[in-house]
Every structure is written in structure tokens, then in C-alpha cells.
Design brief:
The chain is mainly α. Helix content is 79%, strand content 0%.
């Protein structure tokens, strides 16, 4: 799992930086290739986690396939179709959570869910830029990869979906806010100022969340060194 995370971070970081540089025209031409890589990445992740044995895992896998479809279909052919599919993919996150609570989840289900959330944010951010949005929106998926690379450098585990002693409530709320901000920015009728404001607020929220997690992990490692 750690290797998969690092491969993802190393692969996507230059892609996102190049997308920020090239803008809408460059990103629009990449979307089918991005879709193919997201599909291959999730196939590998499901195999690594041995997921797919519970209803919740199946729902999460279906959500990942929705992300692939979102990237594969031409977003400019029907903007409202694209937005509707994006909203359905985001809303389906509630389904796999309910199934996990109702029927139980697998050992890797939380990780699979979190990485599918990341793929959703990646896809939505790229679609916003492809539609003419400002490149700061790419910070939303990029922060996760930067976090993984920094943890690799500092030899800190970055694969735990609940880094703050088992409580991931804040992270889930921030993730939900980020997705809502991206959906607002993707609305075909959204004014430019609303698009930039929604994604700007989302960037600030996610920066605060990752900063808090990083501070916690660094403090915990220092405490463990003192105790050891």
C-alpha cells in the first residue's frame, strides 16, 4: 500500500504541475489518458487491498468507475450531463458509507474509500481547469500527493486513513466541503467569481486540514522518540 501511494504521488505531481502551466487547452486533451491511468491505478489498489468482498467495497469500486467515466466522456459535449454525473459520483459516497455501517466493511475498505475520494477530487479539479477555471484548483488534489512525498522524506506513515488517533471526522467534513466547492465551480451556470471563490475557500480549508494532520504526526513522532 505504501508503494502504491508513493507511485501515485510521483506520477500525479508532475502531471498536475504541467496542467497548471498549460491551462484549459492542455488539460482537455489529457482527460482520456487520465481516465485510463485512474482505472489502472484502482484495479491495482483493489488487488493490493483484496477488496470487493463486501457491499460497501463494491459500492466504492462503482464510484471509482464513475470517476473514470466522468473523465472519459467529453465534458464539453453536454456540460449539464457532466455536472449531473459528477454530482451522482459525489453523492454515491454516502451509499458506501451506509453499506459499511449496515453490513460491515473490509480491512482495506477505509483506504479504498479515501483513495476514491482523492480520485474524485482529482477528476473534478481537472474538469474545472478544462472548463477555464483558475489553476489554483489543482492544489486540491496536489496537497495529498505533497503530503505523501513529505511523509516519505520524513519517514512518517502516510497511509493511515485516520491519522489523528482514530478520529477522521474533521477530515471527512473538509473533504465534503471540497467536493461541494468543486461541484459549485463545475455548474455550467456558475459565474467566474463564484467558481473562483468556491475553489479558493476549498483550498484554504484543505490546507488547514493537512497542516493540522502534519503538525499532529510530527508531534507524535517527537513524543515517540523522547519515550524511546
Amino acid at each position: 500500500m505504501t508503494t502504491w501511494l508513493r507511485v501515485q504521488a510521483v506520477s500525479w505531481t508532475p502531471v498536475l504541475l504541467a496542467a497548471a502551466w498549460l491551462g484549459a487547452a492542455g488539460v482537455a486533451g489529457w482527460l482520456p489518458f487520465v481516465a485510463a491511468y485512474v482505472l489502472l491505478s484502482h484495479v491495482a489498489l483493489v488487488a493490493i487491498l483484496r477488496a470487493g468482498r463486501t457491499p460497501a467495497d463494491v459500492a466504492t469500486i462503482a464510484r471509482a468507475l464513475g470517476v473514470v467515466a466522468l473523465l472519459w466522456l467529453d465534458p464539453f459535449a453536454s456540460p449539464w450531463r457532466t455536472w449531473t454525473l459528477a454530482a451522482c459520483v459525489a453523492a454515491f459516497d454516502l451509499v458506501d458509507g451506509w453499506l459499511a455501517r449496515r453490513f460491515g466493511g473490509s480491512d482495506g475498505g477505509a483506504v479504498l474509500d479515501m483513495e476514491t475520494d482523492q480520485s474524485t477530487v482529482l477528476a473534478l479539479a481537472l474538469l474545472v481547469v478544462a472548463g477555464g477555471g483558475a489553476p489554483h484548483v489543482l492544489l486540491l488534489p496536489l496537497m495529498r500527493y505533497a503530503f505523501v512525498l513529505a511523509a516519505w522524506w520524513w519517514a512518517i506513515p502516510a497511509h493511515d486513513p485516520k491519522p489523528v488517533d482514530g478520529d477522521n471526522g474533521r477530515g471527512r467534513l473538509v473533504c465534503a466541503a471540497v467536493v461541494v466547492g468543486l461541484l459549485a465551480a463545475l455548474l455550467p451556470c456558475a459565474a467566474a467569481w463564484l467558481r473562483e471563490a468556491a475553489t479558493g475557500v476549498a483550498v484554504l480549508l484543505l490546507l488547514w486540514s493537512f497542516g493540522s494532520d502534519w503538525s499532529f504526526l510530527i508531534a507524535r513522532r517527537r513524543a515517540q522518540r523522547v519515550a524511546g
